[in-house]
## 1
Amino acid sequence: MILGMALGSALSASAQQREVRVYRDGNAWVEETTGTLAAGKGFRLQAAQGAVQVRGGSQQNITYTIKKRVNRSSEQAARHDMASFTVTAKKGPDAVYIDADWAQERSGKLNAEFFINVPKETNWVKVETRGGSVGVNGISGKVDAATAGGSITADDIGQSVIANTMGGSIDVGRVGGDAKLETQGGSINIGSVGGWISASTSGGSIQVGTGSRGVTVDSAGGSISVTKCNGELRATTAGGTIDIGDVGGGAHLESMGGGIRLASAKGIVSANTASGGIRLMNLTSGVRAETMAGPIEAEFIAGRGQFTESHLDTTVGDIVVYLPSDLAVTIRAAIDFVNGHTITSEFEGLKKTSEGGQYGPREMYADGKINGGGPILKLHTTNGNIEIRKSKSRK
């Protein structure tokens, strides 16, 4: 049944084509509104509820389909519910606006869906819904998406993306600019971002493919994985592992309960965990690593003039360090409770000493200069072995 139609041969700045019909779909009644508006530089949608999908394409105008769905036995009761949820679509001076809100008391039986097609060249898209998922794809401009309860997806976005949800996951594919993402209860998955990445979740994991500039990620209760970061990286989690690939700058890694792994970094590295092992490879500068329970493995590839003072410390666990054969460094190594543990080195020049009685705790130390000495490398474990080895793969 067609309720209303406004047709025109051409669209002016304010004119639009619009068609509304109501039909039965299983146990529900659906009011479906389709329309066309002349496009503007931007597009904004605000809805009291409903899932939203915005897609960029080759069309010149904006087309939309809006569905209100009500589970009612009679058409009259369904029409009453649908009439209380009003939707307006209009063309402003520089943008197109769609607003949907309750004119009367909200009906708990009504759900809404918004399907919007805009020109790919749209400069900006802003979507806000108080209940439903949001998806935006194929926009050359920037995107700002928010929902009070639902997931957010964005892909093929030319400029920046801002996404905020109070309860759902965030999935971002390719983004040309910066990405600022926040969820209060879900995971975050990121593909490739051309700018800065800032991602935070209060209850989920974070996965990042490539960050062309700096990356800052924080989780209150999940693991973190970053494949590649071309700039500085900061990753913190209150309860999960941290697995990092190649970092083009420095890295700050912190977990309250999980292991830490780093494939490579070209700047200073800080790695701390309350419980778990730490493995840091291909380090070109200094590092400070600390764990309360777990082994530490670190490989330095820095040559002369690159290495800076470093400190590796574990309460319970072994420490294994790989150093280039030509690295000039001063070693300060210590074991608090030997208990059968020892300090070994493939380099000459270290002097080992031990303290303590035959039946009491014995401490062991190793000090010395390698290749004439240089910045200090401190190695400390309360209960474990310390091994200093020569790097085999590279100098």
## 2
Amino acid sequence: MEMGKLFTGDTTKTVPQIALTDKEGSPKRVVLVIEGEIVGDNKGDEISQEHGKDLMLHSLKSLKTAKTVPDEIILIHDGVKLILPENECFPCWKDILDREIVVKACNETLFYLGKIPDDPRIICEDMADLLQSMLTADRIIRL
């Protein structure tokens, strides 16, 4: 068995790893939290903002073929805009969801924007439930 992957009935089809392991081999649940549409701080200039958008796009695209993936991706605040059809990152989500990575979006933000996700595999949860997911994670990575 290849490290970090579980094999399904078909040996050619794999699903993403369930959890990362530390040096002792104990399982770890990793959550990626995305709070905005760009990577980094918006310094108020257009060049910085465009670069941050490019970094976000490349980060999400890399999850299509990444060897190690998070167990969950949680989208809060402006990060929720990444799953909307008008966002240039929108096509990335199909590949991420096809890898069976759990994607959760904040209900309150979706309500504020007046939007619902196009893909029914995206789980819409209240912020309180998203907080519980973060509090029970072994590791949180923030973009």
## 3
Amino acid sequence: MLLFPIGTERQLRAFPWATVGLIVANTFVYLFLQVGPEGSNFSLVYGRFQWWMPLTYMFAHGGFLHLAGNMLFLWVFGPHAEDALGHGRFMILYFSAGLASAALHVLSSIALYPEELSIGLVGASGAIMGVVALFVLRFHGVRVRFFFWWIIPYIFYVRALWVGLAFIGMDLLWALLALGDGTIGGVAHWAHIGGFAAGAVWAGALKLTREGTHEVKHDEVRELIAAGAWLAASRRLEERIVERPGDQQLHAEAASCYEMVTGRHDDAARHWNEHLRLLLLARRSDEALDRFRRLTDRFEPNDFDPAMLMRLGAFCESQGDDEAALPALMAVVQAHEESEQAPEAALRVAALLGRNDRAGREREVLESIRARWPDSKAALTAATRLGEME
């Protein structure tokens, strides 16, 4: 009977250079040890400990099947953990899990199997169990694809969380059963547990479990949207936004859903405004401007927040795009006359018109500033500018 993972349903965001590098390194060391000098001290042996053993043991394997099995697990789970962490932090996870694996193996051997301290520990499985732990805690809603062969081949899917529980549960069970025998056996189960624990600590410290929970809940939203249940989807998105108020994409999805529901125009505008504000805060002004341009086909100037419009106008000015700045600033003047931003927006409009050789329109705007907001600082500036134009 054969049973092993062969992939997941999740799509990778980037090529897993670190994972591939580790697979190449493990394969190279295995081949080197097949032809290298006898007695190479790559395994971790407590009785004749050397400083390099906690690192080199991760790259030594007891045979080709041992290597192939470990590399298969690394290839299935490693790229996704690398996606979540980035190349550098993934490597730190891998080696820290390997060190934790070695530490727990040695401590359990001293406490439980002192007669077997001369047996060497080899293999990347402890480090890989750390990778598996991080994967199942970060992507616990993702399904893992398994190959099963008993009489006939069969492929099935299991949710990642259950995969992780099964792996660690089996190691714990076999480790406890081995206590009755008084021997470690052919598999270092305590090493696996140590690596898994290290990966779980990493996932908890980086709050990756919350990200996985968010994705699981968001799957329900996607299903509702696909079914055309726009109002139900928007309500679920409102719940998500309470938990993640700074997620600009959630606001965009909520706004899009509300646009599909009759009578919820104001709710859609509220979320689009927050979406634009968050894009600006993240210094993604180009995206905010592009979104604003597309929204003006469906929303009126008074649907937009005046402070956000001012920021958009200022960004366009800084980019030398006066034609794009004018609509945003004019929206403040026309639709938010009572706002504190309106006089300054009108003054900026006048300056834009002057720079574009439209002196007549510039004068009209400056005179309107004096008439509409006579007590503002903008009115004093407008009066000065009018005097210069005489």
## 4
Amino acid sequence: MGLFQRPLSPRSIRACLWAAGLCALLGATIAWVGPAQPYQAPWAWISFIGMCVIDDFVLGSKEGAIVSELPKFALLAAVIVFRRHPELTVLVAVTAAPIGSLLKGQRWSTQVTAAAHWVLAAVVGAAAFRLVGFEDTPHFVAATGVLMVIYYALGPVLGAWLDARFTGAAFAATFAAHRRLAIPLEVGGVLLALAWRTAWLEPAALKVADGALVTVAGIFLGFVWGGRSSRVFAPGTPIPLRPLVAAGAVLLVSQATPSPWSWLLPLGLAVVAGIWATWRQVYPVACGALGAYCNEIVRAANDGRMPVEGHGVLAAIGNRADSYALAGSHTNFAWLDDRFHLPPPFPGIASAGDILIAIGMAWFVASLMLRPSSTAADDDQAEVSAQAFDVAA
């Protein structure tokens, strides 16, 4: 009797979580992957892999963590977006978890634990969502509510319990940290899913996805070159956060304003950001500002619309056609229009400005990871903590 009353060791808890994740993966493979029909837009689940990695990189467990955390909103959004294809949600979880953990430099045991944790949440959440149903509005709302409750239980609650058992801290203290902003971020995940499936919000959602993939590319480059994820959020970040938030607000306003403000506001921001970045020698930001300037100047020269090469591409844009125009002999600055076809599986085309913005974003993230640390002890602290845990376990 005393054997069953003895608290599980961290190693046993980790083994149980691995087993639960494996069982969930096997069950999902039999129930969903086998009979699944091919999904026609692979860029969609690839985008969610990128968003989950960024979600975990910014809001999840840190570099030296020995326990995993669920993505705060991106995986929940994936459950809703892929509600008719739950196998894609499982694919997102089983792919993004180890990638995100690896890029943060976490140990292999943490990577496996994260994969098991994410897969378990994806399978249970998707199964509950489909069990409640989503064919009409009342069922969809009810299913979303059930999903949020399950995600909260497997996210902040389970994560705090694991944190308390693995570190020896009190559950109340760990739960206070894990539940911070959990509900608003879950609401944000629901809104992201709705934006992904709403026609007039889809362009903004696609830009978020594109930005996430470019950011992952920057993280990967920084990781390959020996960078550390902990340095991204270390003191001394060369970007003033308040002006950055203000600039984002201005860009959102510009999306809802008519021409010429729709291009004039972003153009002004690009000029200001470029001058500031050049003055402060933050060259990745200067590169991105130059790309934004190129995009807005060609829009300004063509009645506020971006010229597009090819009738087929313009027709595929659909409800966003008001922001674009077919390029031709009358097009001003034609060499800056949307003319570079993206490689499969990504849809659409890009401009020279888009390429400069992508390079600038990836370059900036990689440069943050490669910044020199303040002390050598800061870099080694996570590794020492993880080794100490393994010895204790």
